[in-house]
Specification:
The chain is an alpha+beta fold. It is 23% helix and 35% strand. It folds into two domains: 231 residues, P-loop containing nucleotide triphosphate hydrolases (Rossmann fold, 3-Layer(aba) Sandwich); 123 residues, Nucleic acid-binding proteins (OB fold (Dihydrolipoamide Acetyltransferase, E2P), Beta Barrel), CATH 2.40.50. The protein has eight helices and 20 strands. It binds adenosine-5'-diphosphate. Keywords: ATP-binding, Cell inner membrane, Cell membrane, Membrane, Nucleotide-binding, Transport.
Length: 362
Amino acid sequence: MTAAFLQIQRLRKTYDDVVAIDSVSLDVRKGEFMTFLGPSGSGKSTTLYIVAGFQEPTEGRVLLDGKPLLSVAPNKRNIGMVFQRYTLFPHLTVGENVAFPLRVRHRPESEIKAKVEKMLALVHLSECRDRMPAQLSGGQQQRVAIARALAYDPPVLLMDEPLSALDKKLREEIQLELRRIHQETGVTILYVTHDQEEALRLSDRIAVFNKGRIEQVGSGEELYANPASRFVAGFIGNSNFLPVRVTASRDGLANGVFPNGLALACGNFNPSLAAGDDGTLMIRPEQMRLSAQRDGTAAGLPVTVRDITYLGDAMHYAVATPWAQEISIRLPAAQRHDSGLAVGAQAVVEWDAGDTRLFAQP
Ligand code: ADP
């Protein structure tokens, strides 16, 4: 594992009695694409703006390449920044926009010219060099903003929801571009989004923010397979959450009962839960099996089929538990479908205990 390049240590920021972020710590490796993912108001931008120097933390520190960053004036930090709204200078050509950070740094004209060409080629906009920003589409303007932010080879590029003003198709196109640009330049990126799909598509690792804290950091796959909390399980991918009263717990396994009295075993036991506690069982829709209940003897959770949706590659079943909770089941369309599974039918749901997670949160 490569050593941390950007170290965010115990950052806290308060506004009067509002705690914007608390105890935010994170190590980012050189060249990593790190995304801050979380709902609105969870503290993503505050953390990013402290790194950028737009805000000062109440407590905590940030190290870049081992050196304290917060004592460096914002304009001396050499950190690139791209915002949600394209912030190009409207009266400068595309080429001059990209040249701007180099002019501010008094770089020689020959270097500026070469760099502008190189950056515009990187974002595939060489032919637009002499146009004005207003003559470009939103997506093109955002690519110019990326070229400008990278023009002076900043060690870190900060991006605050840079694609959220674009429509879905364009957003997906630029996500691909961004991945390529990241690979070609090797720049370390901190990227803020509230869109889990975008985070999964772009990131090497994702830091999941909730209520001013980081709940978990990991690759998309890690977060999906091993969510550390109910919040993460609900934010990354879809989940069913079923109420369970714990009846016994031992190494990595728990037993419990559902509200209808059905006993179950579940895996990955949360050590803070003991017999008698109420917990929440998480099961992903694609990890459940559904079969028709023909003779009333099949083991598993009895349910009633409420709705069936054909999704092309999968079938989605909405089923109701005996305590009238609706849960989602997703079966691959390639699997042969049981003709007994019609709307209104009685059915049985099963799963493997090892695929479930038990959380203390209700
Ligand atoms: P996010 O980027 O995840 O949407 P923010 O970092 O913008 O979240 O905000 C985190 C919390 O801090 C929110 O509760 C927000 O209302 C609060 N906050 C942010 N900026 C200010 C400010 N200037 N004054 C007061 N509260 C603020």
